[in-house]
Amino acid sequence: MLSVRVLQQLVNGVSIGFIYALIAVGYSLIYSILRFSNFAHASFLVVGAYSGFFLVTAASAPFVPAVLLAMLTAGGAAVVTERLAYRPIRERNSPTLYFIIASMGIAIFCEQTIIATIGPKFRTYPRVLQIVSVDLGKTTVGIMDVVAALMACLSLSVMQYFLSRTKTGFAIQAASFDLQAAGLMGVNVNSLVGFVFLIAGVLAGLSGVFLGMKYAVYPQLGYLTTKAFVGAIFGGLGSLPGAIVGSIALGLLETFVAAFISSQLRDVVVFILLIAVLLIRPSGLMGKSVEEKV
Amino acid sequence: MKRAIATALVAATVGLVVAGCGGSAGPKTIKIGHLANVSGDAAPWGLAETNGAKLAVEEINKAGGILGKQIEYVVGDARGNATDGVNAVKKLIEQDKVVCVIGSNFSGINIATGPICESLKVPQIGSFSTNPKVTVDEKGNVRPYSFRICFIDPYLGSVLADYAVNKLGKKRAAVLYEVTSDYSVGVTEYFENKVKSLGGEVVAKQAFKTGDVEFRPQLSEIKQKNPEVLMLPLAMYKDIAIIAKQTRELGMNDVTIIGGDGYANAMLDMAGQELQGSFWVTHFSYEDPEMAKFLEKYVAKYGDKNPEVNAGMGYDLIYFVADCIKRAGKAEGPAIRDAIESAKDVKLTHATITMDPKTHNPLNKSAAVLKVEGKEIRWVETYAPMK
To answer: Which CATH architecture has domain A2-280?
Structure first.
């Protein structure tokens, strides 16, 4: 009896963890280059969720192209955001705090714009995968979750390959050590940063579509990004494997606390653990230790 | 000469006062006041309520009135807030001399007007003021002149429990409620107590916080306990829809979903399939054949085919007061108060009312049970808990 309970919660936790991971990787990527928490990441996700929704319903596009297009739209939104909001700050060498405030502003702007134009209503994707579930003994696995996990694994492996095997990947890695030095070595910093935002936006768009299908599409959908942010810190900000491990650990932790201890205490326990991790290992589970340079 | 005039004036004044008091014959009409929000944001509900009440006044007057007298109906506008509500009640009682006040539909207003009604000895009967504090003070003592005709929110839990156990024959219940909402916690508490008292069992009770979208950890735990019904005391249709989806996703296909009055048609757009056959309860429904008759008259008079529930409640409040005045035998505040308190099986259109003297809430009042069928939430029956 207990093993069935544990197994089902394990499945629940991992499936949530993979969604967090998709969000956390983009988050972590931007952090590793620009060294700030991009709260506007939530907006990219929501843009992805809404564009996917309208492509499938209003434009009645087939599912797979709709998802790809939604990812691109979210990626585009991220690039535009970077160009209009962050590049001016970057070029003026302003403090990191300015980035954070700008990103908060964008997140609020985006949410309110959606409420004002599209409306606060909850919308749902047409049923494609979400109702099917497989019964494994007494444990149920949603097909939707399996697909989401597979897609997450696929895009994360592509990312990992890209970063470690391609020229642009090397440039991103170099930039994550020192953006200015990378610039001096002949890396086009503007297009590199733009490219990083594109990747982060595309991943956020994908997770937006999955979240929209799993739950609903609504202006506050992006609030889940906070959880992914915690996952990224858990694993070590700036580390991609760390973001994935941290997110899945967070998904499992949340699920087990909610199921076996108390759902009221879920966030309390999770955040106490986060603080503990930061006290014992300030760079997270798999983070690079960054020395103070000043 | 001056003195003569003064004497005449005094005599005239005394005469007027005596005439005003009415002597044994009394005033020719019986004045009933309606504390309603007929202007401001809440006006749609207030206007529906007064429209319903006016219809009842017309009918009763045409049929000869109460105790041989015509009803004179006076509206006091509370404008949706307690300050204006207090002024309106003072005017209704002190200037208009009403003998009973019906309304309002806001708890905050009735809580503020309760002490005034008590000191002026005129009873008030709330239409949709569902906060327990309307009729019971902080110390738990009943407010002698405050009543309500609706049931309080948590009572929905009792109806749900009774319906699940006695009508659906399902004794193993699970609850998933929202911890930060008084509504949710209240309904859960009443549900749990009633299920136990009827010989059923709440096999799982899980909670979440507003904003959550992932309910599978809690639902997986619920699944392990094999419940027959899942009660969702939730005010947000989004939560209901997402929970329904995840419930079915986890393979709980035979569990009947039931809930209070947080349902909305929009939830069927989100999870129509998963919510098929689910049951919901609320104060009353215009689909009830009894209420349909009222609706027909209402549409004939006002043209509004889809009035707020307040219309029906305003209508029934007038009939309820009329019954109380008849039983009191005289149109005086304290006597009417006693008649309201002792109301037993007063048959109205939307329900039959028996007043609980201990709480001044209607006792074992019926509620409308609705069921999701296809793309609609249809009325099934008006159900009164067995006891």
So the answer is: Orthogonal Bundle (1.10)
Question: Strand (E) positions, chain B?
Answer: 29-36, 70-77, 100-102, 124-126, 146-148, 172-178, 201-208, 229-232, 256-259, 279-282, 346-347, 352-353, 367-373, 376-383
The reply to whether B311 and B333 lie within a common domain is yes
pLDDT tens figures, B130-143: 888 999 998 889 99
Inter-chain CB proximity A122 and B218 less than 8 Å: no
How distant is the Cα of A154 from the closest Cα of chain B, in angstroms? 24
- CATH assignment of the domain containing B243: 3.40.50.2300
Q: Which domain holds residue B214?
A: 155-282+369-383
Q: How many helices (H) and strands (E) does chain A have?
A: 12, 2
Q: Which DSSP string corresponds to A51-107?
A: HHHHHHHTS---HHHHHHHHHHHHHHHHHHHIIIIIHHHHHTT--HHHHHHHHHHHH
B340 assigned to some structural domain: yes
Q: Which residue of A has its CA nearest to B266?
A: A122
pLDDT tens for each residue of A40-89: 999 999 999 999 999 998 888 888 899 999 999 999 999 999 999 999 99
Q: What is the pLDDT of residues B255-288, one digit of tens each?
A: 999 999 888 888 888 888 899 999 999 999 999 9
Chain A residue numbers touching B216 (CB-CB < 8 A): 12, 255
Closest-CA distance, A208 to chain B, in angstroms, reads 14
Task: Describe the strand order of the beta sheet including B146-148 as a list of residue ranges.
Answer: B70-77, B29-36, B100-102, B124-126, B146-148
Interface test mutation site (partner A, options B176, B180, B203, B214, max chain A beta carbons within 10 A) = B214
The structure's pTM equals 0.82
Residue B13 belongs to a domain: no
With an 8 Å Cβ cutoff, is A57 touching chain B?
no
Instruction: Please indicate, yes or no, whether residues B375 and B235 belong to a single structural domain of this protein.
Output: yes
Q: ipTM value of the model?
A: 0.83
Q: What is the mean pLDDT of chain B?
A: 90
- The answer to whether residue B273 neighbours chain A at the CB level (below 8 Å) is yes
Residue B179 lies in a domain: yes
Residues 6+ apart with CB under 8 A from A210: A19, A22, A144, A148, A151
In total, the C-beta contacts within 8 angstroms joining chain A to chain B are 79
